[in-house]
Design a protein that fits this description.
Length: 72
């Protein structure tokens, strides 16, 4: 990713490409890391929920399709 940003002045239609400051680059990196961490946590939560569901179905001795029939 380039270390620039696009600024559009809507009143004049002028489009400028401006270098990011060191603070903006650091913030972008921090935001990207925060997103990656949140996505990893979301994926882990989904996997844990799927494992719990599979364990419950196993304990009940039914398939997912049978559970859907019972609940539907």
């Amino acid at each position: 990713m380039a270390d620039t940003k696009i600024v559009v002045d809507c009143s004049t239609g002028e489009v400028s490409e401006i270098e990011l400051t060191a603070e903006e680059v650091a913030q972008r990196a921090a935001d990207a890391q925060a997103f990656a961490d949140a996505k990893a946590q979301e994926d882990a939560d989904k996997a844990a929920k799927a494992a719990e569901k599979a364990a419950l179905l196993e304990r009940l001795g039914i398939t997912e399709e049978e559970a859907a029939l019972l609940l539907g």
